[in-house]
Predict the structure.
Amino acid sequence: MSDGAVTALLIDWRAGDREALDQLIPLIADELRRLARHQMAGERPGHLLQPTALVNEAYLRLVDVQRVAWKDRAHFFAIAARLMRRILVEHARAQHADKRGGAHPPVTFDELVLGGPETPEQIVALDDALQALARTAARKSEVVELRYFGGLTVEETAHALAISAETVMRDWKFAKAWLLRELRGAPNRRA
């Protein structure tokens, strides 16, 4: 798929051309499924959502997005990754709404990065920590979203955020250390 063709269709879609969306979907469908598989890789076996359902839910939310000024293909997939993460977090929060306010089992970012099983509690704890990071260091939080949740490479992340690859790596290292510290203290922070 040509990045230029995808970008042109995104811009046309943003301008209100519904036919552009119809042309865009076949070009991005495989990539969205790959992204969903990446998002679901750490989920426990028997998760109620499957990659196809995650793609469908993300698609429904994407077609309703009117405010995004799509820059290019990387920007689109960054937003898609963020939407998929939000869907998984919403699902995890709904599944364990009765435990809200209770202690969450300890989880470390390393376990999540290394592909350990993600329980709904771990997903919620990571989301809480990521939101806290976003309040103090928004770009570093975006780097984590794009790299960890979106599966983007360092170069793709740099392009999506319009920063250098070196800055991505510095932000990634900082964010990992920060999140590890937060997640190790997660059970103690809950009231």
